[in-house]
Amino acid sequence: MSTVDVSFEVRCECLPRDYGYALFRALAEELDWLEEDAAAGVHPLHGTTASDGGLFLGKRARLILRVTAARAGQALSLTGTRLALGSGLEVGPGRQRPLMPYATVYSHFVSTGAEDEAEFLRRAAALLKAEGLPETMITGKAHAASTPEGRLHGFSLLLHGLTPAQSLAVQASGLGEGRKLGCGIFIPHKSVVAVGTD
Fold this sequence. Notes:
With 198 residues, this protein is an alpha+beta fold. It has 2 domains: 3-98, Alpha-Beta Plaits, CATH 3.30.70.1890; 105-188. It has helices spanning 20-30, 72-75, 117-130, 164-173; strands at residues 3-11, 41-42, 48-49, 55-56, 62-68, 82-83, 89-98, 105-110, 137-147, 150-159, 187-188. The strands form 3 sheets. The chain has a 5-stranded antiparallel beta sheet. A 4-stranded antiparallel beta sheet has the order 9-10-8-11, with helices on one face.
């Protein structure tokens, strides 16, 4: 089954910096299938850190869900809703986008259950090998996120040397834990560069 991204315009004055779990819960209130659908994921939101430590979303910010093509129409029902998150996140028009098979893909935050970088790499390599994917990767910044069960720890991660089929496969499946919290979701990257500057 094919996987797509559904991208929405959003408007929000400010979000808490550690918004991942709260965003997932707000989305799950609107989409009753989101929590149980193992294939569904939520991309991290990107913005500018405000003076109070919150996150400011600019006009180009997008809320993006990664879902099976069969769920895309249901996901688009978010248009026009206001999520109880931060100052209130208003969801605007959405559109469906296919995944692109770039040889290099990047995830802002991959969590394998390990806080130590060497152990993180070992576990990430094992996960990639189990999926028949090349273990060619570069780590970047360390990240952490709060959940009711405790803190998720991980690193940004770039994978390179992928065939088109491998690229689409890892984008569809993701890697590691926390897919609903913005973790392990890969996007195309044009070249192999340092990933510690995200």
